[in-house]
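Let us practice reading a record.
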Amino acid sequence: MRRIELTSEADFRRLDVFVADNTSLTRSHIQRLIEQGNVTLDGKVVVKASTPIKAEANVCICLPDEIPLDIPAENIPLDIIYEDDDLVVINKPQGMTVHPANNVFTGTLVNALLFHIKDLSGINGVLRPGIVHRLDKDTSGLLVVAKNDFAHVELQKQIQTKACRRIYVALCEGIFKEDSGFVDKPIGRSRSDRKKMDVVEDGRTALTYYTVLERLGDYTLVRFELKTGRTHQIRVHAKYLGHPVVGDKLYGYAKCRFALNGQLLHAQQLMFVHPVTGEQMSFYAPLPDYFQKVLTALCNRNK
């Protein structure tokens, strides 16, 4: 059984929201752990996910050992940008799911990692070994994978404290009026479609900064920087702005003038402090060919 210990720096209205904001666990997973008696607040077992917590409260989450599943190692090619004894930086292709879920146990990044990487951290269990943060299936680009639990915890702290910088590039529908700005709107499950996320009043805090890189006819090339890591955050906030990501069938338009297999959203830059050496690390992944091809076509059309 693994344990996660947290200390609240301020008052928080709900225990499950506090834990979700400070770990990689989902709220539904946290609520199940609370129902099972696996979460304590200042040494006492909590029975309600809605329990408010005070500043300097101590929360302990006990994660029961998972029943081992047969997740096969698969010789799937990986674009490894960097690797050392503690971590790996991967340039994930569009179309690859990060970890097994929903009865999908093959073809994921985890299957490839199990083949190519000898050691992976075990904090997230057998389904998500080494996975510190995720990218949507049809979002390409950089993510960091931990090889041991110490590196995993330290990298996760940097994401939580916003010391880890994650910068994306997206082609969005329409023309942005402002050259830069931000969206500070909470994100939660959509009221009308449970498969989707949306801006909702009781959602989790979500902050996204954006800067216009280029206006290309009826489209805008935009640089997004995440300050939080909510599910589908950039895609939801882009839709909220009225400029969904091109090719995003879930949050964008049903029809797209380009032949695409997913949204034009790419995690281009990743910056963090190495968890062991303390060195400032910075990585860059160029736009995929299919993304660059669309930009070239738009540039030629506008000449």
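A brief commentary: The radius of gyration is 20 Å.
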